[in-house]
Amino acid sequence: MWCLLGLRCDLCYNNYTTASWTKQRTHTGVAISNCVDRPSETIGEDGFPEFPALNANRTVWSWKWTSTGLSGAAPTLHVTGELHFRSSNDLQYQAEFSRYDRLVTNSRCVQVLYSKDADEVLQGQRSIYRIFAPIVDYSPLYFGVQRVVGQDSVSAGLVVKKHGGEGWLDAFYADALCQIAGLWVNCMMDDDEKDMWIANGVEHWLRAPTANIKASSKEKWHVFCQHSRSADGNSVLSDIFIFDATSGALTEVIMGVKYAKVARTSMGKLFSRLTAQSGTVKAPVSQSVAPVLMASAETPVPSQPTPQTAAAPVTQKAAKPAPETPSINVVGKLKAVLADISGLEPEEIKDDVELGDIGIDSLMGIEMAREIEKEFECTLPQDELMHVTNFPSLLSCVQGALGASTDDVVVHSSSASEDEAEDVAGGATTPASVSTNATSVDLDFNEALSKGLELPQSAILKAFGETKLTTDRLMEEYGNRGYLSTIAPLQDQLCVALIIEGFKELGCDLAATKPREKLPSIPYADDQKRFAQYLYTVLETAHIVELDSGNMTRTHIAVPKRQSADILKELLSSFPEHACCNELAHYTGSHLVGILTGHEDGIKLIFGTDRGRELVAGVYADNPMNKIYYAQMGDFIRRLAASTSQRPSQGPLKILEMGAGTGATTKVILPLLAELEIEVEFTFTDLAASFVAAARKQFKHLPFIKFRTHDIEKVPADDLLHSQHIVLASNAVHATRSLPIAATNIRKMLRPDGVLLMVEMTEPMYWCDIIFGVFEGWWLFEDDRQHALSSAEDWEKVLHGVSYGHVDWSDGHIVETKCQRLIMATAGGKQHPRLPIAPKQQEDFRHEEREAATSKLIAKTALDFTIPTIPETDIIKTPSTGHCILITGATGSLGSHMAAHYASLPTVTSVICLNRRSHNSPYTPLERQLNAFTQKSITLPASSLSKITAYETDSTKPLLGLPEETYATLSTTVTHIVHNAWPMNGKLPLQAFTPQFKVLRHLFDLAALVAAKRGPGFKFSFQFISSIATVGHYPFHARTPHIPEETMGIKSVLPNGYGDAKFVCERVLDETLHRYPDRFRAMVVRLGQVAGSSGSGYWNENEHFAFLVKSAQTLKALPRLESVVSWTCVDDVAGASADLLLDKFPEKIYHIDNPVRQDWAGMLKLLVGELGTPENKIVSFEE
């Protein structure tokens, strides 16, 4: 690190300034340049400095330090550099320093130091030097860093350190300043943990001409560092700027501090050699300089220094001689593999260790075998692997696979001997929990309370109360509002489709059976009975089957036709933030047959495959609903810690996480704990040793974390009884046989003033059960539960039943808060009134936010629109007579009626139907279009049908996704475009409509090309089918139900993605085609409620009324509404829109709506009679 270089600079400068031949005292400024350190040898008693002058004024001096050692060998060069003496009145000196002052300012430093977007933050002197300890174990004399922030390739720090007053440099003061750079390169830069970075040079060190650091009483400094890594990655240059934290003045700069990368093992060997030499060669270091212990991978460092305890002398045992000609170093390579997997150092793996004790269980055993086979290029016998439980048996297995006898194997074991230290700084492994005959949890609470930090219940309730108030806000911020009405229904469809597909493969084809027909039972293994029964209930809830005394009967409800793969594609496209949940549900659901029949194991399916592990880790870490409650956990801990008064003698705030698994919660909590102003101790636990090993590998660099295996269902180990202030658990406790037993065991772990924080799903979700239902443990509950998950109220009953005190949970007005909760329970005390939820906020339509978002999309979609310039020869001289109409979305209800209407008009010679590609259709594009007519009972004469051409394409692609020759043909034939295609989903966010904006722009480009080819005398007609959603809020702010046919602002638009997207398209029309009124007839047609056909009665099955009728048939009920009906028949809408498109002098905006209203009460009487709904089943809409 920096300390050796700094000491050698200080030594050389002090030797120089005390030399008798140094007479000049007029130069108050000093600069050090071109300093290079060579820390390969200690400076012995025979070491001597040399100071040759480099100029006649004797203001620039070269310096070096060499020694010869006891043997009189050639001199060894240790350090070189230059000293420059400058007058504070030197104008060149002042100008040079002022350039640095302009280069970086204190405000820039402060901006990084307290940035909310920092990559990493280290806070608190105690925590910082513990983290630094594996690199440099500093004496307290070198302490000074209070905060370090890393952001991209810069770092900033707060240092509290006063110059000692002796010498120009002062090694303690200088080192503390330079530690900001050292911490970044060693602890924040993304690099191999096996390496460390050593400062071995400085290009230029300059202090402000007016600064007098030695005489100053200032001790608080802001330090800003810029870092640049070399192309080969083996060195880093850091420029350091030091500011007076009070005045903001730049006091000194250290340019070009060079850090070289060195393997920790090599550095450890170097210092071991230097330590051995120190018995005969003494370094002439001043007694005032505290020794600095360099830590290496070979030298375990205690996690905490023991106060007032002298360090024991280091003794080295003689190493056993290795054979002269080693053959295969199996032991060393094997331990290296195990160390990489478990997160331990090879030295910590003993020759007789049980694999489970280092975190290698059956799950990690799969990864272990794969890594061993890769390392040794062999194949391990599976039957022998089944019996491997410890290192000797694993070694024997590997030897057998290699065909090596014991005599061929070189045993280079690097494991520590029994009397060597076992704990490594920041990564101490504590014993696994074991069952014990512990005394009652209620024994001597006073004794437990007398030990350690105390948490008043009032502080706990206050902190949780404040956290609870954030629930609705966080629901909004993490995008979960509306989840139950938008995403969850589609996820349910995905799961139902997966079950239908699985049942078909198991011999129960639901689509092939008739209503009232009995269905065969699916085959399943005995241990899958509960899972199979659950799948039946999903189908029953979907009204596809009826269950009665074990018999399953088909209903009249049609089996959904969409395949699970298609539904997944829609989910991934529309809701990418939920990708991991949906992908994992599809992944496990696609294996239902293997799971149910016992041919596949759920644990191995998820945790035994790379894909499964990646997805499940994403579910825990990236699910937006989980993120809310991880954030609330952290918020509660932060608030509680801030209200806690901690005395040094009380010890740390102890937090233990149970069932920590993949570490999703841990990753959120640990950075927060590192920033707390109080001392903390965090224990990571899980039943699976493999998860503990993975966590140790990832988090062991933190000084306050411990690791151990622990089973929630067993009594805690003795050392855990009444030990924890806070126990955390995220979706873990429900996965036990008995909630009361698990809750009792947790309470035994808590101090009497402790608190339990659980994140628990409180509403079953199909996708969750399809994922975790493949685990046998999901269905092993033996208490009175009917499902693994429980409501918040049921949790309260359980917790009170085993003597917890106050129980509360997160809550709010947004309905999605009921899906999952953060549940809090105090270990003692009594139940207080439930803490309040935040007041319901007045609905915020976010006008400014939506205005900004839509304006950005309008500008992006309309960017660079123009009518292209084409050669005169390409202009059509004699255009064909008659109209050629291009319609998008022509297979839908309105689109089909539009196509049919235009084809029936004598002035129309051609109708081109541009439809979305159907991947599963066996029909040609034209056949599919004609089938759409048939499904909607539309009949056309042959003369009309002959006008119709159909294409299927992805219009989001350039040229509308069409071949160049087809696109060129359209550009010479099309005269009118009707853009009708649009996804009917009022729940999608605005961003989900991005593909529609691409389609619109591509249609505009086609229209512009047609206009160019037709020449100035031709006007191209374009009609965009919009929606009443773009004016849905106009009556609210205008105070009138009469809506004008004119351009609207965002205040008039329904505040959802559908309305905002239609609004964007209307406004893009203004910014493109409407700018060329002499070349285009462009219009917007806003539609009200489009009803069924006046002829056939066919109603779009995806409209809300069709869903209402289906629900009424299923529930045998109808809603009572106090409103009127405004419906316009679809064929009338098609005819009216055609009249508008073909008008030669159209307006810009039209509304198509039925001016005649009907009362819903009258409509209800008709529906009751037609659907056979009982009179007593007319209920409120909410019911």
TrEMBL record:
Which GO MF term does the entry hold, naming one? acyltransferase activity
Q: Give positions of region: Disordered.
A: 411-433
User: InterPro entries per the record?
Assistant: ACP-like_sf, FAR_NAD-bd, HTH_51, Methyltransf_12, NAD(P)-bd_dom_sf, PKS_dehydratase_sf, PKS_mFAS_DH, PKS_PP-bd
Recorded hits in PROSITE patterns, A to Z, give: CARRIER (PS50075), PHOSPHOPANTETHEINE (PS00012), PKS_MFAS_DH (PS52019)
Query: Which UniProt keywords are given for this protein, alphabetically ordered?
Result: Acyltransferase, Phosphopantetheine, Phosphoprotein, Transferase
- Region annotation (N-terminal hotdog fold) maps to 1-90
The chain positions of domain PKS/mFAS DH read 1-268
Query: Could you tell me which residues belong to the region C-terminal hotdog fold?
Result: 120-268
User: Source organism's superkingdom?
Assistant: Eukaryota
Instruction: Identify the residues that the record assigns to the Carrier domain, covering every copy.
Output: 325-402
Q: Which Pfam families is this protein grouped with?
A: HTH_51, Methyltransf_12, NAD_binding_4, PP-binding
| The name this protein goes by in its record | Polyketide synthase
What organism does this protein naturally occur in? Pyrenophora tritici-repentis (strain Pt-1C-BFP)
